[in-house]
């Protein structure tokens, strides 16, 4: 059994040495990769730095212009809003005045139509009624004269159209 323990110790020692060699190789490989990445990062930084410097300069130069543009845009928005409010007030006032004028015109036309209607009624009652009465009196006189003249015989057998016309009148 003691032979087996020594064999396992030797195998363990060899395994530890192999692991050390593998770890050492990994360490060296990581260092090499780290150096390569550092070189790549330095080259990239050397290329990006001028670009960033230019962008920074452009932003610094444009900052005032951008602020001016934003201020102008805010002022234009304010002016547009004020003009829209003025137009709304004028439009509302105009519509209200137009409504008042339409109501006034409606009252005027209604009054005029009532006066015309009253005038027509008055005209009918004061002018046409006496004219109709006078016409009726004249027809009565004519009928009486016709009767006295002897034209009553002709009326005994009147023409149907004449009879209809007399009824119509």
What does this structure look like?
- Helix content is 93%, strand content 0%.
- The radius of gyration is 61 Å and the shape is rod-shaped.
- It contains 2 helices and no strands.
- It has one domain.
List the keywords.
169 residues, mainly alpha
SSE pattern: HH
Number of helices: 2
Helix content: over 70%
Largest sheet: none
Q: Round the mean pLDDT to the nearest integer and report it.
A: 86
- Low-confidence stretches at least 5 residues in length (pLDDT < 50)? none
Structural class: mainly alpha
β-strand amount: under 5%
Gyration radius, in Å? 61 Å
- For this structure, the quaternary state is single chain
Number of strands: 0
Number of domains: 1
Q: Alpha-carbon distance between the termini?
A: 159 Å
Outline, from the CA principal axes?
rod-shaped
């Amino acid at each position: 059994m003691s032979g087996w323990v020594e064999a396992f110790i030797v195998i363990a020692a060899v395994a530890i040495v192999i692991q050390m060699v593998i770890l050492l190789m990994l360490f060296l490989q990581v260092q090499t990769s780290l150096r390569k990445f550092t070189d790549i990062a330095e080259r990239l930084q050397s290329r990006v730095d001028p670009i960033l410097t230019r962008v920074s300069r452009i932003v610094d130069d444009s900052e005032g212009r951008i602020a001016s543009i934003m201020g102008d845009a805010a002022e234009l928005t304010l002016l547009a809003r004020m003009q829209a409010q003025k137009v709304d007030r004028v439009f509302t006032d105009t519509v209200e005045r137009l409504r008042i004028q339409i109501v006034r015109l409606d009252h005027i036309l209604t009054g005029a139509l009532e006066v015309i209607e009253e005038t027509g009624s008055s005209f009918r009652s004061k002018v046409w009624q006496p004219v109709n009465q006078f016409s009726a009196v004249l027809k009565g006189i004519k009928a009486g004269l016709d009767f006295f003249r002897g034209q009553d015989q002709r009326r005994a057998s009147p023409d149907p159209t004449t009879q209809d016309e007399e009824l119509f009148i």
